[in-house]
Amino acid sequence: MQPLIELKGVSRAFGGLKAVDGLDAVIRPGEVVGLVGPNGSGKTTALNLITGNLKADSGRIVFDGRPIERMPAHLITRAGIARTFQLVRVMASMTIAENVAVGAMFGADPCPPGEAMERALPYVVRVGLGGRMEQPAGSLTYIDQKRLELARALAAQPRLLLLDEWLAGLNPTELEDGIALIRSLSGSGITIVMVEHVMDAIRALCSRCIVMNAGRKIAEGTPAEALSDPQVVRAYLGDDDA
Predict the structure, then answer these.
(1) Pairwise CA distance, residues 197 & 211, whole Å
(2) Of the four, 33, 132, 172, 194, which is 20 to 30 A from 42 by CA?
């Protein structure tokens, strides 16, 4: 099967720090892949490079056979890639519906505002915010803002959805609901890459995971294989505990 997206030797440095260092990765259509590693290992930077929020210093990023590493972020979104952010970003003065409509207006199938508002409704319902369309986004709890951000990403009709610690901060019941929601999204055909520290979710959802440390890929395989790799154990626990 042809990759949906492929990273080939992708690097990005900030001064003397290589945040991403020669990263190779292949994601195939329909996969749910975990991108894991200790804090500061380069995971979010990798997502920023895929979405065009940052530009790679070197390497190639090929999405659906097309190089995107030099494309502006809005065209990458239009090509079919959407994301959520580690630090939630909502437009606080706008309603839930208006926030989600923005995703439809500027996503893979752009549309005018009136149509975008209509398209927003099923996504708001899907993430559990139905009946609250006119509520200002700034009045939502942190968890509901995360739901809103996911709905906005889905409204962009992505083929590749990038989730940056979307499950972080959920209580056990919310976590179960979140895992079920991501599983349903995968079942609808969306390819998902999830940066996550909740390993129960990685084991429940991902057929494969990629482990990073200090900007480099140090392991790859099923969650059981990758997370038990000695390099991964050392990265998380240190040599004394490995």
Answers:
(1) 11
(2) 172
